[in-house]
Write a structure and sequence with these properties.
Keywords: Arsenical resistance, Hydrolase. Residues 24-154 form the Phosphotyrosine protein phosphatase I domain. It comes from Candidatus Methylomirabilis limnetica. It is built from four helices and six strands; from the N terminus they run βββαβαβαβα. The chain is of the alpha/beta class. It has a single domain (21-147), classed as Rossmann fold (3-Layer(aba) Sandwich), CATH 3.40.50. The strands form two sheets. A four-stranded parallel beta sheet has the order 4-3-5-6. The protein has a two-stranded antiparallel sheet with strand order 1-2. Strand 5, helix 3 and strand 6 (120-122) form a beta-alpha-beta unit. The protein is globular, with a radius of gyration of 16 Å. Residues 1-16 have low confidence and may be disordered.
């Protein structure tokens, strides 16, 4: 049998004697799941489409109405509708089903205990919470720059050096 390079932590499937490699997956985590992680999830979907499984969560989720500035910024500045977003708690997510977990800053990363270092990516993105809309736009633009650093190609394949 030929060897297959397996990316990620999820199971491979056998289909008629061939191995199917599942699409890569990313979980974005911030404090309330109302600003940075929401924007990162949406902008990842916009960039990679269905080629990547993506989700977001918060360590202390806030009420849905607290996401209004992020939702509005995504709609107006990035032409992406996230009006149905409901903040989720990190503990309700099966973190082991994701190839990568992105902590939106080093303080969030410190609270994500037990995630192997090779799967935990730490970004340095300030929380725009309770700031004006220009700060939300700036946050979105910074997230777009960070997305280019994800070890995933535009087609959704994981890079060999990841």
């Amino acid at each position: 049998m030929l060897g297959v390079i397996r990316w990620g932590s999820g199971p491979l499937k056998e289909l008629h004697g061939m191995t199917e490699v599942r699409k890569p997956s990313v979980l974005f985590v911030c404090k309330g799941n109302t600003c940075r992680s929401v924007m990162a999830e949406a902008l990842t979907r916009r960039r990679f489409g269905d080629a990547v499984q993506v989700a977001s969560a918060g360590l202390r989720p806030q009420p849905p109405e607290d996401a209004k500035n992020a939702v509005e910024t995504l709609r107006v500045e990035f032409n992406w509708d996230t009006s149905s977003h409901l903040p989720r708690h990190f503990r309700d997510i099966d973190v082991n089903s994701f190839d990568y977990v992105v902590a939106m800053d080093k303080y969030i990363a410190k609270e994500l205990k037990g995630i192997p270092k090779e799967r935990l990516l730490v970004w340095n993105i300030d929380d725009p919470w309770d700031n004006d809309m220009a700060e939300y736009k700036r946050c979105g633009l910074i997230i777009l720059r960070y997305l280019s650093r994800l070890p995933i190609t535009h087609s959704g394949q994981q890079e060999a050096n990841a």
